[in-house]
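Q: I'm teaching a short session on how sequence maps to structure, and I want students to see two examples side by side rather than one. Could you give me a first protein with its sequence written out and its structure tokens following it? Keep the formatting plain so it prints cleanly on a handout.
A: Of course. Example one:
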Amino acid sequence: MSRPIEEATEKMYRGLWAVIVPLLRVPKEPPTIPVNSSRGGEVRSFQPAPGWLKYMKFWFWIVLAITDIGLAIGYVAAAAALIFEGLWWVAALLLPPVLVLIIVPDIIAFIAIHLKYDATWYVMTDRSIRIRRGIISIRETTVTFENVQNVKVQQGPVQRHFGIADVIIETAGAAAVQKGGAGVGNQARIEGVADAPALRDLILSRLKQSKSAGLGDEERASRAEAVQSTDRRENQRVNLAARPAWRPEHLEALRAIRDEARALAAALNGR
């Protein structure tokens, strides 16, 4: 795509985006995610790096260039044959449709990749990460770090050229799906980030914190309360065991009751 066409398409896209947002109710802001305020959690919102947009343009342009070259060669061959037969006016009539077939897909592709770029959001807290994609059908995926099994960076040679990479988060069950040969299962892909190794290390550190914390402060408080309850019962048992079972006054009262019972029995027998 030439520079003038790209600039014109850029202006067209900005106008189209201004129409799409209110029409389809596309959120302008990143998605929200619950944060534990008592722990002072930090929320980080970000989008793919600009290199991801260039990366997508690169592949679209390659595909469209091949298509455009094929259409141009086909038209030249057909026009030459028509002119040789004296039907030059037919070749002239075919020129506008061919130009439309060459230019319109370029415009559509440019708009499509910009829409994909602007609609992609990543939001991360100390406990989870949420990914949003889509324009017509908005999809949000949330991954809790307690369920993460592995985090890896994936980067091809073209991605390396544009300075981007993908961070792949594998959750519980993903490894089993891969071993079964059914493809990649429970995965979350953070596409087109410029600092992929740093982001991977950050996720791994938060994963370690989450697993070391167990189920959180609530679980620790519950365990502490259970331990205290057990200690109280043990102390009560020890106190009861250490306390004398019968005091002297108790024994004296029992003797008096025994003597009275004997006297009553003797009186009844004397009758």
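Q: Perfect. Now a second example for contrast.
A: Example two:
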Amino acid sequence: MPLGINAAIAACRSAILPMAIGLAALLPPGAATGQDVQYIPRDMYVERLQREGNAITFCYNADGMMAGFELDLARAIGDALLVEVSTRPIPGTQITTPPLDHRLPLLPDQLFVLLAEDCSALLGYALSSSNPEWLSVTRPYFSSDTLLVVADPEYRTLDDVPLDRPVGARGMSMADNRLIMYLQARSADRRWHRHPYFNNEVVLERLADGTIGAGLVWAPALYVHTDGDPEAAGFHVISPMPFPTPQVEIGIATRSDNSYLNVTLGAAIQQLLDEGTIADLLARHRLVPADPDR
């Protein structure tokens, strides 16, 4: 039976320590670092690959807002590659999945053990320049924007929002960082107060109850919250944005030493994008605006 995440981390560290000491003795002074020995490939990873053969095991966040979409995507990838696919929820951790968010409830060492013991690939991983070296992410299967949302239909631009009405955002997101820069570039007498919140759901709740005048919301979170129709739910999107925000790009994470799998999954993603399969799945799970013709 696979070890639990926390128990596996402890086992992994205890096994790595003597190996690291031996490696350090063979290397020139200063060549060994904590990062070099922290992610040494384990035999358990090789053994799991031998057991699986041509099958692919995907892990996914069962508590995440994209779980249903990810299960359908895994099956579609299996059909495209003509391989057997199995899916496995991320084992429970002490980190809670934020509602209406793409963040995964995993620390880097937990993610390492997950990809070594439990699965070949992890769905729902956001591309980032800060990803660890031992991790590779496929081409994105979903790229999405952050939207500026208001509840008052009279607000057509951000400048229509009175300065005494705060602007909310999910704190520490890329969009929130851009909001901070935008506000700092304005003169002090022309700035809105910024209200950071823990997740997109709270931003939408504060918009609905009038606590804030505008909010930055990850687009799929808005569509899931409103069943694909923000206008019917009383939310209005201001477009264009008064400042640029980077897209959130989501792909599939694999170990870097399994480059063949990463490339193969990337090719399958491109095929499903070209065929329109992924667009159909996104619409089915209300991760994009509802199409009245569907």
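Q: What should students look for in example two?
A: Point them to this: The chain has a mean pLDDT of 86. Also worth mentioning: The two ends are 44 Å apart (CA to CA).
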